[in-house]
């Protein structure tokens, strides 16, 4: 059982990570590179991250991959590792669920993963283009992870439990992070034009949707194909 | 009859506990990967995974 869950999560993540890297090359990555041209030409005191935690651009501090093939290779590696991580989480959920899953149901589970990890957090913290002003990194990360947990738990209560009180609690959980509110910078703006940020937000959300659909579909297909009769 | 019910119940429980164990291991490994690649505050990891973090809508910088 453990071997099968891990193997399916790994395989689905590998496939989805490679496919999403190809999809990112079309729109998302070119937009990031374009935003960086504004960032490097902006005066230092307008630098969005002057007060932020970590050093930021690739050519600032420490080692960073060379632009071109090396940078693409590291993005592919990071995408595959993240996709495998998502794949393992999705298959952990499928293992708890325990019911039969095929390609179609797998895609539905993938869409649930997309809602939990992308849609709900993006409502408070839109996908960030490099060079935009942002609140403290740790606060944003905490809000993101809290929203993921609340939305995932809330959806599970809403979908899998039949008593109205559980469903109501699920709705409250899903709404809570947005009632609390995501951390935002004192002053919005940044070095890149807002239109570029809008294009990036849509492109990255659509590309992430593709990742989750592939992840769910492949997981569901493999579960049906290698179903354990015992 | 009673024997069958007991056996079925036992195998159901074994099925559930092995499923939960598999889920726990997978969830632990998956969280480790996502937090490591997407959230770690190391400059080197950040720079290597930069484009990936932005693309997956993780908070970055």
Features:
A: 230 residues, 71% helix, B: 61 residues, mainly alpha, 84% helix, 0% strand, rod-shaped
Please provide a brief summary of the model.
By secondary structure, chain A is mainly alpha-helical. Helix content of chain A is 71%, strand content 0%. Chain A has a domain of 126 residues.
Q: Please, could you describe this protein's structure?
A:
The complex is a heterodimer of chains A (230) and B (61). By secondary structure, chain A is mostly helical. Helix content of chain A is 71%, strand content 0%. In chain A, helix 1 crosses helix 3 (69-97), helix 2 (28-41) packs antiparallel against helix 7 and helix 3 (69-97) crosses helix 7. With 61 residues, chain B is an all-alpha fold. Chain B has one domain. In chain B, 84% of the residues lie in helices and 0% in strands. Chain B has helices spanning 2-39, 43-55. In chain B, helix 1 crosses helix 2 (43-55). The model of chain B has no long low-confidence stretch (mean pLDDT 88).
Helices and strands of chain A, in order, run as HHHHHHH
The averaged pLDDT of chain B comes out at: 88
Which two chains share the most extensive interface? A-B, 65 and 41 residues
- Helix/strand structural class of chain B: mainly alpha
Low-pLDDT stretches of chain B are none
Shape of chain B: rod-shaped
Q: Unreliable runs of chain A, pLDDT <50, ≥5 residues?
A: 44-59
Span between N and C termini of chain B?
64 Å
Strand content of chain B: under 5%
Question: How would a textbook summarize the main sheet of chain A?
Answer: none
Oligomer: heterodimer
What is the strand tally of chain A?
A: 0
Q: Which band does the percent of strand residues of chain A land in?
A: under 5%
What order do the SSEs of chain B take from the amino end to the carboxyl end, as H and E? HH
